[in-house]
């Protein structure tokens, strides 16, 4: 009963994150100067993500192998395989949620800055919804453990 509930909540969370992303991305980017600054931020964020996830990916793989090795030593091959795969899948989902959160948040920045020239209310909505994408997608791999 718990696993279907967890999967349903996760699925609904992804739909909600999709809606928030759609809302943020449909907002106006603003003038050329704002877009140029946004492109520089995007370039820096992409370089950061590439470096960070390369390092984390290698460490997760090494740790997954170590976990598997410990279970082989304990003569629990099947359990070790399941736990190692589960660990690596969780690390992948966590990384994916970080990538999605960064993708949306750096695109929300320019839209919020543009919206702030017209209305603080709309700027705040864009900021909160852009940040919520990261929170909602990060909620799934970190809170539910099978």
Tell me the overall shape: elongated
- Report the biggest beta sheet as strand number plus sense, adding barrel if it closes: none
Q: What's the helix count?
A: 4
Number of domains: 1
Instruction: Calculate the terminal CA-CA distance, rounded to whole Å.
Output: 12 Å
Gyration radius from CA atoms, angstroms? 19 Å
- State the share of residues found in helices, binned by percent: over 70%
Count all strands and give the number.
0
The sequence of SSEs as H and E is HHHH
List low-confidence stretches: none
pLDDT averaged residue by residue: 91
How does this structure look, described?
The longest helix has 42 residues. The protein contains four helices and no strands. The model has no long low-confidence stretch (mean pLDDT 91). It has one domain. It starts with a helix and ends with a helix. The protein has 146 residues and is mainly alpha-helical. The protein is elongated, with a radius of gyration of 19 Å. 89% of the residues lie in helices and 0% in strands.
Defining traits:
146 residues; mainly alpha; 4 helices; 89% helix; 0% strand
Question: Nutshell version of this structure?
Answer:
This protein is mainly α and 146 residues long. It has helices spanning 2-25, 32-73, 77-116, 120-143.
Helix and strand layout, with pairings?
Blueprint (H helix, E strand, L loop, with lengths): L1 H24 L6 H42 L3 H40 L3 H24 L3
């Amino acid at each position: 009963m718990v696993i279907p509930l967890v999967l349903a909540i996760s699925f609904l969370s992804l739909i909600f994150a999709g809606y928030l992303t759609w809302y943020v991305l449909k907002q106006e980017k603003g003038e050329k100067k704002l877009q140029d600054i946004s492109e520089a931020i995007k370039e820096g964020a992409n370089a950061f993500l590439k470096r960070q996830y390369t390092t984390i990916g290698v460490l997760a793989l090494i740790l997954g192998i170590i976990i598997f090795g410990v279970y082989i030593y304990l003569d629990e091959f099947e359990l070790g395989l399941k736990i190692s795969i589960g660990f690596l899948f969780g690390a992948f989902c966590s990384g994916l949620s970080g990538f999605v959160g960064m993708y949306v948040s750096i695109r929300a920045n320019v839209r919020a800055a543009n919206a702030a020239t017209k209305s603080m209310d709309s700027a705040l909505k864009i900021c909160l919804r852009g940040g919520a994408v990261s929170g909602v997608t990060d909620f799934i791999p970190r809170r539910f453990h099978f």
